[in-house]
């Protein structure tokens, strides 16, 4: 890319950022507390985001999208988290940063034509169903099964902790098409949620990210045509490994934005709050602790931006993604914990927004691969299996 092209891309990104910030201020800020209290974002808000051009913006224009760079959806998630809308960002991440690319990169043209325009417009809400009760991150040991029966698969099993699942019209299901082949028996199947045999469980109560719906899903002799297979049968695990770098890049974008928002909040508070006859910002401990937070944020941001560049160049590896997610999400917890400390007892109340930063951040080191799994991936890259 030439310097002129980079300058044009940067200018377009900032123009898009300004639009996104106006959208979040007008369409999210006035309603977000109610969504959190209701424990659910309204279904129609997906259409609102689609009409504004926020969903899957980096998909080609042929599917109704804007054909932007990947920087745009990543920026959208970063800004959502900076403004303390982390739950919204998590649902967005599934729809625009995971499912859209899955279908575009792995799907047939018929599958793309069927699903991508709806993902872009918000007419289709999507979920990724991977985790199973008792299964955690062990994809190879999953029990949900799709058995070939003529020109259909018959699916039985259950999934848990599935984001966007209450409103989902489409589920990308990770299941076993060969129970005896371990990871080589895993496949991905596109499931239309209107089909008989699909059932949603009750919403799971969580300590944070309240307006991001999370439920258990059940598949009871659900039949889908074989052309709902996404990618190649038995290659589901490989397909997921290929797509994981982008998913974890999204988690890092969330972490960087979240750290920035919490630090901004804490910096403002300590300049207003007084103790011992002076603002907290005049105390050396306060100044040094916030300086340490700033250093961690900038280290995380530098690693994140390095990996965005590697991803755009097609050079980001699974090891890179694991190291990035581990580093930035662990920093996120550390920084936000420290920021909350400066609020004292007020930080422990729902009255102050820093408490939601704290609650919402906690899941970041767990979903999309826990920190322990990330370290194992990195270790294997150094030492082999």
Description:
The protein is an alpha+beta fold. The protein has three domains: 3-124, Butyryl-Coa Dehydrogenase, subunit A, domain 1 (Orthogonal Bundle); 128-233, Butyryl-CoA Dehydrogenase, subunit A, domain 2; 237-383, Butyryl-CoA Dehydrogenase, subunit A, domain 3 (Up-down Bundle), CATH 1.20.140.10. 51% of the residues lie in helices and 15% in strands. The protein has eleven helices and ten strands. The strands form three sheets. Strands 1-4-5-8 form a four-stranded mixed sheet, with helices on one face. Helix 7 runs antiparallel to helix 8 and helix 9 packs antiparallel against helix 11 (371-383). The two termini are 37 Å apart.
Uncertain runs are: none
By secondary-structure content and strand pairing, the structural class works out as alpha+beta
- Second rung of CATH, namely the architecture of the largest domain: Up-down Bundle
Number of strands: 10
Oligomer: single chain
Overview features:
385 residues, Butyryl-Coa Dehydrogenase, subunit A, domain 1, Butyryl-CoA Dehydrogenase, subunit A, domain 2, Butyryl-CoA Dehydrogenase, subunit A, domain 3, 3 domains, 4-stranded antiparallel β-sheet, 11 helices, 15% strand
Brief account:
The protein contains eleven helices and ten strands.
Task: List strands and helices in order, with pairings.
Blueprint lengths: L2 H26 L3 H7 L5 H8 L19 H12 L3 H21 L2 H13 L4 E4 L15 E5 L2 E12 L6 E7 L9 E7 L5 E6 L10 E12 L3 E2 L5 H37 L1 E2 L2 E2 L4 H29 L5 H24 L12 H8 L9 H13 L2
Parallel strand pairs: 1-4
Antiparallel strand pairs: 2-3, 3-7, 4-5, 5-8, 6-7, 9-10
């Amino acid at each position: 890319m030439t310097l002129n092209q980079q300058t044009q891309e940067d200018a377009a990104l900032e123009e898009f950022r300004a639009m996104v910030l106006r959208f979040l201020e007008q369409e999210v800020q006035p309603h977000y507390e109610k969504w959190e209290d209701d424990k659910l974002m309204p279904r129609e808000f997906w259409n609102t985001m689609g009409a504004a051009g926020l969903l899957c913006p980096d998909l080609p224009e042929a599917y109704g999208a804007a054909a932007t760079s990947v920087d745009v959806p990543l920026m959208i998630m970063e800004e959502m988290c900076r403004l303390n809308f982390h739950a919204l960002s998590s649902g967005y991440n599934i729809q625009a940063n995971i499912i859209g690319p899955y279908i575009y990169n792995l799907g047939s043209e018929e599958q793309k034509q069927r699903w991508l325009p709806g993902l872009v417009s918000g007419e289709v809400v999507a979920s990724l169903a991977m985790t199973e009760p008792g299964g955690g991150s062990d994809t190879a040991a999953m029990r949900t099964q799709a058995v070939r029966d003529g020109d259909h698969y018959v699916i039985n099993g259950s999934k848990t902790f599935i984001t966007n699942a209450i409103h989902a019209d489409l589920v990308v299901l990770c299941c076993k098409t060969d129970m005896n082949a371990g990871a080589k028996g895993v496949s991905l199947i596109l499931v239309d949620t209107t089909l008989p045999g699909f059932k949603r469980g009750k919403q799971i109560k969580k300590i944070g990210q309240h307006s991001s719906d999370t439920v258990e899903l059940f598949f009871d002799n659900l039949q889908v045509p074989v052309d709902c297979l996404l990618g190649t049968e038995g290659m589901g695990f490989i397909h997921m490994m290929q797509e994981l770098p982008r998913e974890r890049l999204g988690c890092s974008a969330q972490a960087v934005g979240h750290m920035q928002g919490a630090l901004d909040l804490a910096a403002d508070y300590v300049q207003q709050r007084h103790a011992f006859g002076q603002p907290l910002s005049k105390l050396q401990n306060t100044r040094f602790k916030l300086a340490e937070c700033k250093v961690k944020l900038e280290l995380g941001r530098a690693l994140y931006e390095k990996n965005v560049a590697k991803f755009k160049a097609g050079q980001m590896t699974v090891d890179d993604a694991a190291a990035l997610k581990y580093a930035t999400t662990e920093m996120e917890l550390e920084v936000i914990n420290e920021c909350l400390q400066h609020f004292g007892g007020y930080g422990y109340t729902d009255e102050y927004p820093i408490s939601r930063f704290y609650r919402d951040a906690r899941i970041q080191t767990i979903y999309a691969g826990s920190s322990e799994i990330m370290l194992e991936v990195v270790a294997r890259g150094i030492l082999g299996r």
